[in-house]
Amino acid sequence: MNVVFENLSRSYGSVRALDGIDITIGPGITGLLGPNGAGKTTMLRILATLLPPTSGTARLDGWSTSHDRERVEIRRRLGYLPQDLGLYPRFTVFEFVDYLAMLKELHDPRQRHRRVREALEAVDLQDVAGRKIRTLSGGIRRRVGIAQAIVADPQLLLLDEPTGGLDPEQRVRFRQLVGRLGEHRTVLLSTHLVEDVSAICTSVVVLWHGRVLFQGAPAELRKRAEGLVWSAQEASSDAVASWRTDNGKLRVIGARPGPSATPVEPTLEDGYLLVTSGSPIR
After folding, report:
1. In angstroms, rounded to a whole number, what is the distance separating the alpha carbons of residues 113 and 127?
2. Which of 56, 100, 211, 244 has minimal CB crowding within 10 Å?
3. Average pLDDT over residues 114-126
4. Nearest alpha-carbon partner for 33 in 212, 185, 186, 199
5. CATH code for the domain of 182
6. CA-CA distance, 19 to 174, in Å (whole number)?
7. Taking Cα atoms as reference points, which of 153, 131, 149, 13 lies closest to residue 80?
8. Looking at the structure, do residues 108 and 238 belong to the same domain, yes or no?
């Protein structure tokens, strides 16, 4: 499924959350990378048909989120995990996913229950299907959220800050899961964690104050910092960023801080910091 934004804007009063977005996103896993307030959640809410744009259009394989009848078709083809899903604590895991499956128009009980079991198996939750949601840990609840998002086998999967609140082990398992889900779907993953994008995304869009600063492969973003990352004893005043590493030296992004500085291989985070800095360096 292809997602197309054409001059998409969204304002909240005088605040412009999205400002003339013009991009196309295809199958695979695309990371929407940016700080809080960059416009990532607004973009996903528009795609999920929960929020109308102020101007411009968002289309999914030709269907527009701005038309009532076409919104219905879009909803039939997407799964959505918001930051706060609002799980019903008195429901069991199976009951909750089954309820969301009914909302997805899976009316035949036998077929629906088969889909629910398949979704729970996909996120390795079949052993807790009968447990009340209120008894679950944060990591398991996030997986319940994924199960409800994929129960209708969506062509488009929207994940808003899905690793927030997870510990390192849970984050690794979650990335493995999303990697599998993205093999045959279009997945948009909103995050402010560069390591999420580096681990699983096939493409990345960097948002900054509602505008697109970069769109391309993670390797291309990393390449933006080639020749501009150094290991040094001290940073120059015009460095884009610098921080102390575990070897006691500074990692410096920008022009060479001194003759003794040695170049190091850039990371995705280096490219992101360079792009978002607005630095005129080359």
Report:
1. 15
2. 244
3. 93
4. 212
5. 3.40.50.300
6. 31
7. 149
8. no
Contact 181, 167 (CB under 8 A): no
User: What are the structure tokens assigned to 191, written together?
Assistant: 């995050």
- Residues 201-224: pLDDT tens digits? 999 999 999 999 999 999 999 999
- pLDDT tens digits, one per residue of 148-186: 999 999 999 999 988 877 778 878 888 888 888 888 899
Token duo for residue 27: 């199958």
Residues 59 and 169 both lie in one domain: yes
If residue 10 lies in a helix (H) or strand (E), which one and from where to where? strand 3-12
Could you give the CA distance from residue 225 to residue 240 in angstroms, rounded to a whole number? 11
Is 253 in contact with 225 (CB distance < 8 Å)? yes
Helices (DSSP H) in 16-137: which residue ranges?
A: 40-47, 68-76, 93-103, 109-122
Mean pLDDT of the chain: 92
Q: How far apart are CA 31 and CA 33, in angstroms?
A: 6
Q: Does residue 282 have a pLDDT over 60?
A: no
**282 assigned to some structural domain:** no
pLDDT for 279 equals: 59
Torsions phi, psi of 251, nearest 5? -100, 120
Instruction: Please name the residue that has the structure tokens 């039939």.
Output: 76
Q: Which of 26, 94, 20, 33 is nearest to 60 (CA)?
A: 26
The single residue listed with the structure tokens 């398949």 is: 118
Structure tokens at 10: 């969204």
In the chain, the number of structural domains is: 2
Instruction: Sheet with 28-33: list strands edge to edge.
Output: 78-81, 156-160, 186-191, 28-33, 203-208, 211-216
